Amino acid sequence: MIAKSMEPFLVGSSVIRAMFEEGKKMAKVFGEENVYDFSVGNPGLHPPKEVKEAINYINNEMDPHVVHGYMANAGYESTRQAVADNLNKRYGSDFDMNNIIMTVGAGSALNVIMKTVFDPGDKQVVFAPYFVEYANWARNYGAETIVVPPNEANGFEPDPEALKAALDPKVKIVIINNPNNPTGAIYSKETIQAIADVLKEAEKEYGHPIYILSDEPYRELVYVDREVPYIPDFYDNTLIAYSWSKSLSLPGERIGYIAIPKKSDNSEEFFNAAVVANRVCGDTNAPSLMQLVVERCMDAQVDIPYYEKNAKDLYKIVTDAGFDALVPQGAFYLWIKSPVADEKELVAAAKEERILMVPGSAFACPGYVRLSFCISNETIQRSAESFANLGKKYFG
Amino acid sequence: MIAKSMEPFLVGSSVIRAMFEEGKKMAKVFGEENVYDFSVGNPGLHPPKEVKEAINYINNEMDPHVVHGYMANAGYESTRQAVADNLNKRYGSDFDMNNIIMTVGAGSALNVIMKTVFDPGDKQVVFAPYFVEYANWARNYGAETIVVPPNEANGFEPDPEALKAALDPKVKIVIINNPNNPTGAIYSKETIQAIADVLKEAEKEYGHPIYILSDEPYRELVYVDREVPYIPDFYDNTLIAYSWSKSLSLPGERIGYIAIPKKSDNSEEFFNAAVVANRVCGDTNAPSLMQLVVERCMDAQVDIPYYEKNAKDLYKIVTDAGFDALVPQGAFYLWIKSPVADEKELVAAAKEERILMVPGSAFACPGYVRLSFCISNETIQRSAESFANLGKKYFG
């Protein structure tokens, strides 16, 4: 007996995850080296050595009662202060530990914020293409998702005018994911400023805060000479959701945080409510050992030049094969325009060449496909022939 | 701007957690050794040595991409098979890995099950005294909680007749927590059989399954010669939520599982839906390193005789002081009858003696208080004088 309300989730059950399973099956049939799986954003780079060192230190030198026991629901004070100090150093912000809540990854960070903000009937705005789980999560709290159509004309940057048209008094959250999954774009300062202007005006008109929920697990993954705008500099009511999944290659560990700027609306009260929401959502606290690990790895990073080379090499292979693609600026995704209107045709044709990609319709943006390039450079190199064959089908 | 729907959570915000913070403050003022904090169930025993060994092995010998990367949303296949094998060995059950979902602790296990089962307007039944978070979690999915009043006459075992009276066609879940938090009781086979009989009849009458959600993080913590009934032996539609928080002293790590018996309604379909729910609830998967740790610690346990001695010693101290208490059979709680109707008076008087306890009203059972004895035996011994003083206030 499964809830009726589960049906839309089951029908639309993650295309990306289905690909992940498909990839594993194909690897068994054709051999792992002959399958070019660009479907899942499962970081291929090992965590930096600091992670292993930190685990050994914590496991062998610290008090197990501290390492594995309950702490305050918001997380260890030392970890939260380390996050605050690190943000302050990098962005000149004024966080302290009472502005930081450790969470079970960014997914949980977003859920906790949504639980804190949404009453049934409220709304959030997202910009297509977008990570569809955003809408599923909002639905858990009775909130509806308004999708702003893709802004193809401007490199898929969010269109402030389209945002303005989408707003109404029920909108409480606008999600921005920058660097972006799935396009690999980095939104410009001008875009962020224009969005901030639209929202400030709307806040005044409606008489209540509208939060920018800044989902930024790819913050450090940048391959071009372009700054990732730090959104609280542009807009007070910004809530940050972060995860170390990508910067430290720890996606399985589910470790992230929420940062609540002091200048955001009723910041202290919001923090207290979000801590309660963290418990009420069922997670109690972020995994304890991993909190202590990231505390010791604040300045560590995976080998980002490796991904940068992947970005360049894959872009060249794909465009050499005749495809039209966005230059990846950040994250680890290449966004390709499908030569046929129904991009699922392209996905199927690619599978014939043992290439796995995700259709843009999984991100509410049909006509495009996403390739994850967080895999080995050797796999990317080996895929060249398959891409060339695929290109021949469409471009002769 | 905090959601109106958060208000009941904020007002009722965990009494237990407030005590936890209070205890830390008092320890600073009076010295840690002079505060007798029986408030939180934060296991005081160190994890067994197998945990440390497993972490060292996994961190230093295994592939970091496997250890920290994404796996199937349900968890590592090897971990799920190990859980299945362990259950089969102990209970003669027939689980395999496709009946097991690894979760972010038991809290998340319960949330995932609720998300899978509840449509808005559905109901669950709980037996007072009960862990109030059950009701908060159900509310996330639009479900209402029916509280069956405490069965004081029969050692707080659930009363099957009262359950019968509480049922209606909207009830989809009945939660059983055995060994029980907060009473320390172990429900008898006869009680479980009688509950199963009531529910089988109701399933027939209403024409749909009613799940027993068996929340059993205290399964191994037993201090008397009494078997903890394995509920799937009594009732097909039983879903198990487990956590290693207590048996391995890993409460901060958030590692647990859901077990879905093959004979439960539409078991396979339910498994698939629950895996999706695990993602839709925002957790994606259980923390990866800890999955691999528990896989290697299936037969390990904390030092249960230590808790058993605590149970005996605290029971003696408290009853010697004149209080009426239930003999703790399992879990790590002593349940005391308050000598005054408003047990918050007792809690306040105890605080004067630097004893922290949790009022029964936090479990929907006023007139009682809960003491956690998962602390050091030395603290329990040192608390004797304070309890004697407290007793004198009421019993002269």
From TrEMBL, chains A, B:
Top-rank taxon: Bacteria
Keyword tags: Aminotransferase, Transferase
Entry-linked SUPFAM superfamilies: PLP-dependent transferases
Matching InterPro entries: Aminotransferase_I/II_large, PyrdxlP-dep_Trfase, PyrdxlP-dep_Trfase_major, PyrdxlP-dep_Trfase_small
GO molecular function annotation: pyridoxal phosphate binding; transaminase activity
Cell inner membrane recorded as keyword: no
Ranges for domain Aminotransferase class I/classII large: 34-386
Name listed for the protein in its UniProt record: Pyridoxal phosphate-dependent aminotransferase
Source organism per UniProt: Mogibacterium kristiansenii
